[in-house]
């Protein structure tokens, strides 16, 4: 783990992310037309859906990092997996909160239990909420990272099932945003939506790198302190 | 007078939730960073003492 520089090009990435976020907000509020059905309240879609997509990909990426960890035994992959899950859970809170706000203004209810999209996302979110208690209930660092990787792989494989369940569900009350043809949105809405997805993915990557850098630096400091104390 | 579109308060609430989450997250990371800075300072002092 000592040879990895997680913070490399973090500053540049942060500036690119900020530029994309600003562009996305400008497009949402000044370019994208109001939805014929939902009106102005549909603007929630541009923050809620990209955030949901990015968190689900974050969970799957964590599973891939965990596979790399188990195959190589390199603990830096476990840290990557841990941070991806941690960040996805944090943004997952945002997905549930913005989803509830959108549901309230669009349907008049904060939560609809009959809605497959909401419930399947909640199941995925709750599943990952078990990750940290499981991880930190194991004292031995080696076993901890191994068990956490097994969890990340198993849960990561479950995430595509979430997408599949939504696709196969018959009853739709939730607005469907992406169909086989790439969405039923008009061109300007689609452009805005795609910019929002890119901005959210960049934000995720920036925060992921930031937390990785933080963890790496903290680990280095601990080692340095131990070495110094051992010499005294 | 500022005219708020229908559902505008909900839209504002959703975006405020998003921004708050990001700001809180960055604030937590920043506080950890400042703790590490202090620790680095302590280690530097320890090294200085030893050099003397």
SSE topology:
The complex is a heterodimer of chains A (232) and B (52).
Chain A: H1 10-30, H2 45-72, H3 75-107, H4 116-129, H5 131-136, H6 141-168, H7 187-231
Helix pairs in contact in A: 1-7, 2-3, 2-6, 2-7, 3-4, 3-6, 3-7, 4-6
Chain B: H1 8-51
What's the short version?
The complex is a heterodimer of chains A (232) and B (52). Chain A has 232 residues and is an all-alpha fold.
Distance between the termini of chain B: 69 Å
User: Helical element count of chain B?
Assistant: 1
Structural class of chain A: mainly alpha
In angstroms, what separates the terminal alpha carbons of chain A? Answer: 26 Å
Largest sheet of chain A: none
Helix share of residues of chain B?
over 70%
The average pLDDT score of chain A comes to 87
Average pLDDT of chain B, to the nearest integer?
85
Assembly type: heterodimer
Structural class of chain B: mainly alpha
Structure description:
The complex is a heterodimer of chains A (232) and B (52). Chain A is mainly alpha-helical and 232 residues long. Chain A has one domain. Chain A has seven helices and no strands. Chain A is globular and about 70 Å long. The model of chain A has no long low-confidence stretch (mean pLDDT 87). Chain B has 52 residues and is mainly α. Helix content of chain B is 85%, strand content 0%. Chain B is built from one helix and no strands. The longest helix of chain B is centred in the middle third of the chain and has 44 residues. Chain B starts with 7 loop residues before the first helix and ends with a helix. Classes of the chains: A mainly alpha (232), B mainly alpha (52). Chains A and B meet through α2, α3 and α7 of A and α1 of B.
